[in-house]
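Posting this for the archive.
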Amino acid sequence: VLTDHAGLLNLYRNHEAEFIRPAARAAGGRRFKAALTAVFSFDTSWEGLLWMVAGHQLHVIDDEVRRDPEAIVGYVRKERIDLLDLTPTYAEQVLAAGLLTGDDHRPAVLMLGGEAVGEALWQQLRDAPDTVGYNFYGPTEATVDTLWCTLADSPRPVVGRPVHNTGIRVLDRRLRPVPVGVAGELHLTGPQLARGYLGRAALTAERFVADPFGEPGTRMYRTGDLVRWTADGVIEYLGRTDD
């Protein structure tokens, strides 16, 4: 996937204004300690790097610790880590290992992404007294994150609202907008869209299509994800269109 620096810059500006700065301010304005638990070949590794660019401390977790939920919990407590970015599946394992139990240090922020969040995990993190949970959604083809929310925003799992300068289209098979509450395929627009797939012109043409609602020459990315608008104006993930 070929992405532009402009897309990453847009993501950073969104996160710095809407996520990083408010989270640090809520913690008294101190410099955060963020843990990078993803390998660098996984696009979500940019989450921790953006915190470092914003002036916070980044701890790069080695493979031995990263693969052991109990070791992660021990590292968080020893180093007093403020932020973890985890897939929901891994978050469940780390929580089972005691991340948010007992009287020891707990992270102030827990980011989720990479897969759908289940009801039980959503409620568990909503009820956590000292940790704020965030859910992020986005394909690599749109530079890591395109939708986000705090778990406190909704009593059930949603993927939220778009990041800055990102357009959301929920369309039927004829590329017509669907009403609130009706399922449709999620299409994305904006500066975070990738150029396409390296050496795969046919696939690029299939997934990156003309945006019939935008200015001439603008494109949108067909995610293949089935979603719907809620009455609250946020996006709820339902599954894949090819399921």
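The first strand starts at residue 33 and ends at 36. The radius of gyration is 18 Å.
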